[in-house]
């Protein structure tokens, strides 16, 4: 049977639970109503002030990204805040960005931390590049200032910029074959000269000539663009860029102490950047691709730890504890005393000191008088002593530079170690207009980053972007000058089509100034065509006719010669060619070419009299006797279509001689078998002249007077047969 239904009042515990549930429901509804009715508004987002005159400097290093905020107060730079964030993994190698996203993430953290702490919206940043693949170029340039009242600061800056551009052209030319693009990331003036006198400062002076001698520092495009890629992803515009050792020099070794031969070495994690001062100027830059990471890698190998643990061990070693605790790659926790740790690290420290000292000596030409070390890698135990020993200088002259060595810098009571020297130097360099600005413009649809001289012209932009002068300016085609039968001929090339240039859609000239963000379009100039000429332009009917003239092979027809060598109708005439066109197609022209005429002797062609207008043909036999055709029989045609005369066989016994002077040489002519007298034509074979291919007009002379082929020769005659010089 089913259990009877329970009736009456509920049990006490059920009733209490129900009441509690009802109360909770009511409370929730009540709370919901109250919340809906009196929901407090969300706190207003903190408004960030504009950056204004605050300088934001980022030192994007191999191991950490360090940010510095500050401003210039007269001659003193005041640091208002700093932030340092390490990379979570090895995103940079030897000072060059390898993992853009990872580096940008760390840089963004530094930026946002400083923004929130200071209530400032950071939009512009100053950066510095490490010296990986650093190239330097030393150059000097003269300027005429005779028409200036006084030399102003702007004039000096402009002259420096022009000298830098000269250095840029020099480095581009030097590495032209490598097709590499280099950016100027810094420079140091070695000397100013006014009228050949060394000057510390040109401003306010008068003179006729200024000479600026400087060293330009250049880095490959890949290094610079890596930094820009990081800042772009961080939402920052690069206000200025410099080289790390230049930035450090500006706060550690200012101009007033550069008379001393001092080397500054910025030892980071990936590179050791070097600058050398002497005689009041920075005279050299250098770079070694060894730094703190070499010590960390040695720790990895000797203690069987990963790279991050090696870095942690180095940090512990710089602390106050007497021992170092670490976990190796097997998960075991180990402890070692500082003394043992330093002893095991000493070979890598010594190796680092060896490379740095050698690089410094190579750059300086000798050991410097003193050395400052900055950067995180400079704190390696025993490094200063090792460097002093290798350089042969007093250990007291090798110092690690921190805030106590910074000149004209107020750190506001902060404790800043040597790793902060470079970022503070970047900020100071940006404030003193010694850094570099780069403008990003669009050229033919592609973004181009160019050194901003504040007066950059379209022409300078196109040159730096790799356009050749011929594409920018254009030029007419080259002319052609040559000589034709003794007459000078000049043919002009065609005119060029000028380039079409627009800036932001408006027509522009090569001198038009450009600025950040401009859009430039260039339709390159089209050069004119060079002048061309061919033999066919002056003789398109060249021909040859092989004939026999007075028993000798000869050639009639129309023939062309270039510089004495026979050429065809398709020969292209070259500049300064000497072109001769000989037209010996007719009998009269042929006789003129070979030095004969029909005024004093009758010429027979194939035994018949022909007029001078007669067109000579292959196989024609010419002579001055009526029986010419019978006395000279042509041989059968060969591939060359040449003919030869039948010559009489020489006799074994010679008769009398005809003694003459022939071309300056005494010559005895044996008596002819036919007993007939010698004629000038008989001596052609002795003259060694190719009568088939005469390249110049013949000169015939007997006893100083002009002669003809038929002139008789007798003993005592002076005979000349030659071609014109």
Give a short overview:
The protein is an alpha+beta fold and 725 residues long.
Can you walk me through this structure?
The protein has 725 residues and is an alpha+beta fold. It contains 15 helices and 42 strands. Strands 24, 25, 29, 30, 31, 32, 33, 34 and 35 form a nine-stranded mixed β-sheet that branches. Helix 2 crosses helix 4 (221-233), helix 5 (244-252) crosses helix 10 and helix 6 crosses helix 7 (307-317). The chain starts with 11 loop residues before the first helix and ends with a strand. The relative contact order is 0.07.
Describe the secondary structure blueprint for this structure.
Elements: H1 12-37, E1 49-50, E2 55-60, E3 64-73, E4 76-86, E5 92-93, E6 96-97, H2 100-118, E7 120-121, E8 124-129, E9 135-144, H3 153-174, E10 182-194, E11 197-199, E12 209-220, H4 221-233, E13 237-243, H5 244-252, E14 262-267, E15 272-278, E16 281-288, H6 292-303, H7 307-317, E17 323-327, E18 333-337, H8 338-364, E19 370-374, H9 383-391, E20 398-400, E21 409-410, H10 421-431, E22 438-443, E23 446-451, H11 458-464, H12 469-472, E24 480-484, E25 487-491, E26 500-503, E27 506-507, E28 519-523, E29 543-549, E30 552-562, E31 565-567, E32 578-584, H13 587-593, E33 604-605, E34 608-609, E35 621-623, H14 628-631, E36 657-662, E37 665-670, E38 678-679, H15 684-687, E39 698-702, E40 705-706, E41 712-713, E42 718-723
Helix pairs in contact: 2-4, 5-10, 6-7, 6-8, 8-9
